[in-house]
Specification:
The protein is α/β, with parallel strands linked by helices. It contains 9 helices and 11 strands. Strands 2-1-3-8-7-6 form a 6-stranded mixed β-sheet, sandwiched between helices. A hairpin with an 8-residue loop joins strand 6 and strand 7. Helix 2 runs parallel beside helix 7 and helix 3 packs across helix 4. The mean pLDDT is 92.
Length: 227
Amino acid sequence: MEVAIVTVGDELLAGDTTNTNATWLAEALTARGVTVSRVTVVPDAVSEIAAVTNEYRAEYDAVIVTGGIGPTHDDRTMEAVAAAVGRELVDHTGAQAAVEAAGYAAEDVLAKTTRLPAGARALSNTVGVAPGAVIESIYVLPGVPAEMQAMFETVAAEFTGPNVHTATVPAAEPESALLDRITAIREQFDVSVGSYPGEVVTLKLTGTDAAAVDAAAAWLRARVETP
């Protein structure tokens, strides 16, 4: 399963807010065996959100859009997703009931948060106000991290892939000096290799066969200078 993540917010593009949602989602999806193929940040603009969402839903199995839902003036994501799938925003009785049950009865809040793309499945927000939605292969989640994480857990089972196994091997050598062994391990074992420089170089081995990952890690540890 291949998934694209679209994070929405002018504050992300301005650097005012760190994009922790993208990192959290990527980790959660990868742990479920899902391939994250794109992570994109777009502004609070209907045309931008709609264009990227429409492009990605044609390319990938699912698109997760996070941010820009709620009662404020710059929450435009539902409108944009509706445009991307060619549907109107309509009053959603399930969404209204959920918002009212959470104790929010103000007309402006209800009007802004309970209109979803026609035919959408509402996702309850157990932490905040605005409900999310699923329409076709698009999942719309809040931007507040705690709300996003709680809502994702309610649909996590819909994102599946093969079990993924990982192992890491630290190397006290320059990254460029490790190229021969990285090449060799890719040729000999059914694993992917990531190389992440820092105080030491961390080599991350990933695969769907636990035995192959363990064997590759043992092979590598015997052939690199460790800290």
